[in-house]
Design a protein that fits this description.
701 residues; mainly beta; Maltoporin, Chain A; 22-stranded antiparallel β-barrel; 5-stranded mixed sheet; 8% helix
């Protein structure tokens, strides 16, 4: 708390003296408002408890077919996190909201870094998961992952999050291997008026403001601003925090207009800046590059503080050709910069993307979606003392074409979906990613589905171009038997190939009784040419002082088979009480090709819990009072300094004195004083998830 107050004082000496003052001023303003204002602005949010289980199964999703379809008709393992879900979890970040998704592992590494993955291979840069926000990919080609601290979206502005567990490559392309997360924000038409949101507690604080207005005939605009801050947390094995305090700022807008009865236009954009603190351990002594000798302590702790800024602009035009045919054109430009102060490294990345899509009905029983697109990824790296890129400038031009055909074999009973995406990139050439999905709906209560898919993950720029000085082993220290220091480096491999995966899935969802629904999914994934690190030949270097350099190269020697099951249950116990339970099992078998050099290791091996479970109670105690209790369990992950299994309990008590005012008290990690959720990862040390409490105020007028 003292660190957060200090940061607020430093950055906002007059306007934001501390989080508690923010909260006190907000509450004072709310209580001073006349009572009539509340009655004139009833809340428009759908309460999760008020929806029947059948209505939940009939929710529309767009991520499976790239067109709207019912969840019950999706031949894929799909889970929808609604806005009400997000609100009831008390989540102030996207990763926190994703904790309720079955078959998904979400672990906090430190105060601003997350490990988020589906069905295996988790880490700070989980590279087999594609994440989109309103159709804009936030998967970075630099490290093949997501900078989660940059995705500081105002949670009240999210309409829903659609999560596909399993490949989505036939529609979304390379890197949609183990899953797709599609975050969809609200239309400006649905966000009229003013919304103020404030949260403050012993570990976190933040505030958001959104204003929406009608600006013409069938034209609507919303603007928003968001600020968040998170305190530092104790590092593993230490009572002192790891300097992982973070803060994020974002300003944005969205404009929606119905041009004609057939045409819609959407424009959106935002600008952000952020600070993510942290410490990286056992990095190679910079004297390897800067002074004439290697000397103790050989390795040092370096600041892993990262500063980020960027902006994006996205436009989408939709045109209805007829009742059963429509097309859309989407363009966006995304610019971001990332500064790693301790490494003296800066990244500049620009992404330009254009995507065209056309859906049409060929016959009464056949619907097709096809499209094409182009993306340009361009970056420039300022090389530092620890991380260097060769070359430090790069541009990739990527072209794609996809088609998906949905065939009704027997109307309202059997449906077959066939499709594929053809993609070309300048590094691995053409990539073909087909899929076949079969859906059987014996009645309006149950559906069974099966799928066979192929997906690829293309190499990141770091895997191809980086030179990273990881650590120095002192003379005569194991495994160094020489009288000279041994510098371990990670070296990019320009010849690295794509990872390839064949997926086999089976699922069922339906109503067991009018008050109980269930969703079951089974999967088997077979990976070829998966990521590994192989030692290269050591070499003697005499300048600036004698030392041995031992490179480890990115390679494709791993063979992996993953399999598992996921179960989700919803039980409407009473009209005002609902229970949701999830359980997932995931197991992977790792091996190496016979051609792999000795001491080759597999990337992200055993970095995923075998068992996960959740029990969530949602109770409408009175018309104005809600209580949510969420119990989560994750078994251990077997990576460096992994903390072991943990169980956590979160609680939220919300009071709605008026239709458009809600005050909530949220408690996190209530079963212990704190726990660790993940092992040490890239440029970071894991920190404790402490017990915490915070108040959230949400006001609409």
């Amino acid at each position: 708390m003292k660190n957060i107050s200090r940061e607020l004082m430093m950055n906002h000496p007059k306007k934001l003296p501390c989080k508690l003052n923010i909260l006190a001023l907000t509450l004072s303003a709310l209580m001073a408002m006349p009572g009539q204002a509340w009655a004139d602005n009833p809340s428009s949010e759908n309460d999760l408890i008020s929806l029947s289980l059948e209505e939940l199964l009939n929710m529309n999703v767009t991520s499976v077919m790239k067109t709207s379809s019912r969840l019950s008709d999706a031949a894929a393992a799909v889970f929808v996190v609604t806005n009400d879900d997000i609100q009831r979890t008390g989540a102030t970040s996207i990763p926190e909201a994703l904790r309720i998704v079955p078959g998904m592992h979400v672990a906090r590494i430190d105060g601003n870094k997350w490990a988020v993955s589906i069905r295996g291979f988790n880490g700070q840069f989980a590279n087999k998961l594609l994440v989109l926000i309103d159709g804009r990919s936030v998967y970075t080609p630099l490290f093949a992952g997501v900078w989660w601290d940059q995705q500081d979206t105002m949670m009240e502005d999210i309409e829903r999050i659609e999560v596909i567990r399993g490949p989505g490559a036939s529609l979304w392309g390379a890197n949609a291997v183990n899953g797709v997360i599609n975050i969809i924000t609200k239309n400006a038409k649905d966000t009229q008026g003013t919304l103020v949101s404030v949260h403050a507690g012993n570990e976190r604080g933040g505030a958001g403001l959104r204003y929406g207005a009608k600006v013409g005939d069938d034209a609507f605009l919303k603007v928003y601003g968001h600020y968040s801050i998170h305190d530092g947390s104790p590092a593993l094995g230490s009572s002192q925090d790891a300097a992982d305090l973070s803060r994020q700022n974002k300003l944005g807008f969205r404009f929606d207009k119905e041009l004609t009865a057939q045409d819609k236009l959407m424009l959106q954009g935002d600008v952000f800046s952020g600070y993510s603190g942290g410490v990286a351990t056992t990095l190679a002594n910079q004297s390897a590059r800067l002074t004439p000798v290697f000397a103790p302590p050989y390795n040092s702790d370096y600041s892993a503080t990262q500063e980020s800024l960027g902006y994006h602009l996205l436009g989408r035009w939709e045109h209805a050709l007829s009742n059963d045919s429509e097309m859309s054109l989407q363009l966006y430009w995304d610019h971001q910069e990332r500064m790693l102060a301790g490494f003296k490294t800066t990244e500049h990345l620009d992404i330009f993307d254009v995507d065209f899509q056309h859906s049409l009905s060929l016959t009464d029983r056949q619907k097709m979606v096809w499209g094409m697109g182009y993306r340009r990824n361009e970056s420039e790296i300022t090389n530092g003392t620890i991380i260097e890129f060769y070359p430090n400038k790069r541009r990739d031009d990527i072209f794609n074409l996809f088609v998906q055909d949905e065939i009704s074999l027997v109307p309202e009973k059997w449906k077959l979906t066939l499709g594929s995406k053809l993609e070309h990139n300048p590094n691995t050439g053409f990539e073909v990613q087909p899929n076949a999905r079969l859906l059987w709906t014996p009645n309006d209560k149950h559906s069974l589905w099966a799928a066979v898919s192929r997906a690829v993950r293309t190499p990141s720029w770091a895997e191809q171009n980086v030179s990273y000085s990881a650590r120095t082993i002192p003379p005569f220290a194991s495994p160094n038997v020489s009288p000279f220091p041994l510098l371990i480096t990670s070296q990019g491999n320009p010849q690295l190939e794509s990872e390839k995966m064949m997926a086999y899935e089976l699922g069922w969802r339906g109503l067991v009784t009018p008050s109980v629904s269930a969703d079951v999914a089974l999967f088997y994934f077979d990976y070829d040419k998966a990521g590994s690190n192989a030692p290269g030949a050591a070499e003697m270097v005499f300048s600036p002082a004698p030392f041995l350099r031992q490179p480890t190269n990115f390679t494709n020697y791993a063979l992996i088979q993953s399999y598992g099951a996921e179960l989700s249950l919803n039980w409407q116990v009473l009209e005002n009480w609902k229970l949701r339970a999830n359980y997932s099992y995931a197991k992977s078998d790792f091996s190496l090709k016979n051609t792999a050099p000795a001491k080759t290791i597999i990337t992200y091996e055993n970095a995923y819990p075998q068992h996960q479970a959740m029990l969530w109670s949602m109770h409408q105690l009175t018309p104005k009072l809600k209580l949510d209790l969420n119990l989560r369990y994750a078994s251990n992950v077997n990576i460096e300094q992994a903390p072991g299994a943990y169980t956590a309990l979160d609680a939220r008590l919300a009071w709605k004195p008026r239709n458009n005012l809600e005050l909530a008290l949220v408690g996190r990690n209530l079963l212990d004083s704190g726990h660790f959720e993940f092992g040490r990862d890239s440029f970071s040390v894991q920190t404790e998830n402490p017990r915490e409490a915070y108040v959230n105020v949400r006001w609409e007028f």
